Amino acid sequence: MYHPLDALFDFQRALEARLDSDWLRGATGGTGAFPPINVFQQGDNLVAILEIPGVDKGDLEIQVKDRAIRVSGKKTFAYPDGVSLHRRERLTGTFDRTLTVPMQIDADGIKAEYRDGVLALFIPRAEADKPRTVAIS
Amino acid sequence: MSPQELQVQQKREVEKKQESTVPTRTFLPTADIYEAENALTVVLEMPGVDKSNVDINVESGVLSIEGRLDFSKYEGMQPVYTEYNIGTYRRSFTLSNKIDQDKISAEMKDGVLTLVLPKAEEAKPRRISVG
Question: Which of A6, A13, A38 should we substitute to test contact with B (largest number of B Cβ atoms within 10 Å)?
């Protein structure tokens, strides 16, 4: 019997194995390394998943140019007046990161979903970029 | 003050007291805690956790929070480049105040859980007479 926890463990190991792989060849430009990005292959297409908890959807901007996808925005929150702060680990500030993917993409077909502080970018591979099977005559 | 550039906060893994049979990774959510006259507020970042997958428990003066990911969303995806790992979030705090457990309120927005824990009225001193 295959337990769901085993599946999670295997997936966590797969993520670990790809940690800072050279697949992007250093093509994640921008200022600072926030937010962290994971990139997955799903069939022919790519899915980039970014963790940005506490960022309001309205403070998020996504731009696409050629093979580059730029995600920028800000994270703001305030503490109520007159409280005593016991623990402060969360950070506020701005971010700006560009992901350049090593393949031609269909820029108009990119979809973005933001849910529970996680941004998912669905990036379709351009038709022209897909390999063709050559028939032998 | 000009806004600061955000830096990546490496996820901290939970140090377990007991080992689990399946050695999955568990992470500590980033937290803010502040206190007002009537209540204690705990704010936790748990990106990817839906509000239906959050457990909050107060027992013997310890507040425990667990957030689970819907890991099925990753089905059919092969990682090609990764910068972070994912897993269950778990964290607990020893409370120094008595909390009115029935009045704890929780709100989840953009992967951030805000818990408001109202302080209980202190138990009044009792006189015990020797019969």
Answer: A38
